[in-house]
Amino acid sequence: MNDEIKAVILAAGKGTRMKSDTPKVLHKIFEKPLLGYVLDNVKNIVSESFVIVGHQAEKVEEYVKKDYTTAKTVLQYPQLGTGHAVSMVCPELQNFNGQVIILCGDTPLITENTLKNFIDYHNSNNSDLTVMSTIFENPTNYGRIIREKDGSLKCIVEEKDAAQEEKAVKEVNAGIYCLNWAKIKPAFSQLKSNNAQGEYYLTDIIAWGKSQNLNVNAYILENNEEIYGINSRSNLAHATKIMNERKLNELMDNGVTVVDPSSTWISQDTIIGSDTIIYPATYIEGKNKIGSNCKIGPCAHLRGDVEVADNCKIGNFVEVKKAKIDHNTNIGHLSYIGDSELGSNINIGAGTITANYNPLTKVKSKTVLKNDVKIGSNTVLVAPVTVEEGANVGAGSVITKDIPKWALAITRAPLKILPDWVRNYLLK
Ligand code: UD1
Ligand code: MG
User: Fold this and answer.
1) Which residues constitute the domain of residue 368?
2) Which of 70, 154, 259, 327 is deepest in the core (most CB within 10 A)?
3) 214 and 340: one domain?
4) pLDDT one-digit tens code per residue, 229-253
């Protein structure tokens, strides 16, 4: 046995109740797929992850390959149950003699901290097999943890196979396991499908372990919210809400003011410095980094890959995507900044748009504004374009060429005043 840990993440199921063309584990919370949350939670714990794919395997494979270099996908076809799913990694782990942690790809609320405590419990008890359990007042649909009279584990019984008195048990299987791989591996060739669903149940490894006199334990998770699984759109909305509340509490604990938590949405992957104020109705998704002493919102939308340095203002009805903004820069009102790099001490007038996308060529281009640039209201910056240090752009301009340092650029048509025109028109 060694200390190495590998993860197996079950993600081959169909997710029928989502009623979607997208595989369940690719449904998103704050622009990140559910599977991404699970992979991120294990990435600091394990040396390698195996994602079991099946339903719409290509889409899930594509996502894993693109974003997670230490994860591999393993195809399960047909999908004959959770035990069958895990057995798919047996060839990959033939000579592995460390621990394997098994999780589901549709359980994004589990935390890295809980997983660490779970593994510590498994190791310190010298456990061969540990299952995570939790208590639900209404345990419907979960597998029930059945214990012997002395309190030790006996087996797990699925809802559909459970007798009446078993259904009354409130301790349920959370669907997360830690296995001493070399010892539990033989179970996978011995699982049977003689149950109500005709499936190879992963849960049967508990009774198998007991029958082999192995050390089998349950780790009881106090906060049952963490194992909340996503099966429907309403589950997805509920999980988003929980995740958001967690994030806002963490930010407030770290010195960020959230004026109205009930209307503020901030992704887990957003870092915000202290003394920044987030005003109501702000929506921040994806990965972002916001400095200290900033003012964000009300009604701001940060769409990911946004970096804002200290003392900046992103005001009302401002949308920002893929942009780096240096300190003391203000984007006060009604603007769109995308694919941009903004220096420090910049002022962006109301209604400024970076025209970053050419819908004919489908090419996105970059806007660069150097330090101390001032952009007048209602300007369109047609990318690719650079405004050099200290330059000013007059209100209402459409900027299609690079502007040199300290210049004034203005494309506004000259103002015409026709004296008495209105009166003459009326008297005609
Ligand atoms: C499973 C457990 C149940 C536990 C619950 C916790 C079994 C038999 N039951 O039930 O005890 O309380 O999780 O949420 O394990 N999957 C595959 N291949 C398959 C079948 C499923 O990859 O052939 C994946 C699914 O995509 C899903 C996960 O395994 O991510 C769990 O499968 P699911 O059908 O949701 O099992 P539950 O009925 O929820
Ligand atoms: Mg499930």
Assistant:
1) 254-409
2) 327
3) no
4) 999 999 999 999 999 999 999 999 9
Long-range contacts of 290-299 (CB under 8 A, 24+ apart): 291/327, 297/264, 298/259
Domain containing 307 — which CATH number? Answer: 2.160.10.10
Task: Give pTM, 2 decimals.
Answer: 0.93
* Banded pLDDT at 3 (limits 50, 70, 90): confident
Alpha-carbon distance values, 279 to 284, 293, 328, 329 (Å): 12, 13, 18, 18
Mean pLDDT of 351-355: 98
Ligand 1 pocket test, pick from 73, 82, 102, 226 with the greatest ligand atom count within 8 Å of Cβ, gives 82
In a domain, 242, yes or no: no
Residue 14 pLDDT: 85
Which residues have CB under 6 Å of ligand 1? 10-13, 52, 54, 76, 79-82, 84-85, 104-106, 142-143, 156, 158, 172-173, 175, 201-203, 229
pLDDT number for residue 15: 87
Spatial CA neighbour of 73 closest among 126, 25, 8, 24: 8
Average the pLDDT over 189-197 and give the result: 96
